[in-house]
Amino acid sequence: MCDALCLHSLHPPQESDDEDVGDAARMAGAGVGERPGGGAAGAKGDGVGHTAMVADILKEKEKAEMRAKEADADSKGRGDGQVSIFVRGTAANGLDIRSSEWGSKLAGGGGGGSGYGDADVAKLKDAIQTLCQSTHPLGKCMDFVHEDLSLMSQEMDRWRALYKVKADALESERAATEAFLQPLQSQLRDLEDQLKESSMKIAGVKAGISANDKKINSLLKMMVTS
After folding, report:
1. Is 40 helix (H, G, I), strand (E, B) or coil?
2. How far is CA 105 from the centre of its chain?
3. DSSP 8-state secondary structure symbol assigned to residue 34
């Protein structure tokens, strides 16, 4: 009977704990405290008129109540908004949302009017859909990047080949032009030499004319004075 009472006091139910434990304590006191002689066993009391076993039962009851209160407080603490939302899209339009605030609002429900309603959830859905629609074309463009790079590389090769052809054509035309101008340049040099010779001859003739003029003037003066 004592073991049953102890187990009952260690795991108290949610309601009527004080009444059940009080009845058990009174029954234990009546069954153990009274002896065949009719005297109460008060040698080992707790100072308030209870026996040692009843005092132990009351202590266990208090410990169990403390543990129950702590467990209740922990469960309430864990339930206050510690919910996270995780949404992930595809590789092209990935979306990663972790919000303890949203989790708190959604977990709180309608408590005090602080939770998000259907309108807020609809707004979140619209925002996610808009983000996915915006990133989907980007994902398609990224798929065509390698193809564009291949086409641009081929076009670059074509331009390089064309540049090489035009550079070779320019060199050949330059060589042909130099070959064509070489005799003309030699002829031009000959003409320049002839021009220099003619200029020297003209200067010599002018000098002779000037000397002859001086002689004529001197002869005329001599004739006038004589």
Report:
1. strand
2. 27
3. B
